[in-house]
Amino acid sequence: MALSDDIKLFAQVPLFSGLSEDKLRLMAFGAERRRIIEGQTLFREGTSADCGFVVASGSFRLYSTARDGSVRDDGTAGPGTLLSELAMISVVERKFTATATEDGEVIRINRALFRRMLEEYPEVAVMVHGRIRANLEAMISGASGMSGRFA
Question: Where is the Cyclic nucleotide-binding domain (predicted)?
Answer without folding.
Answer: 15-118
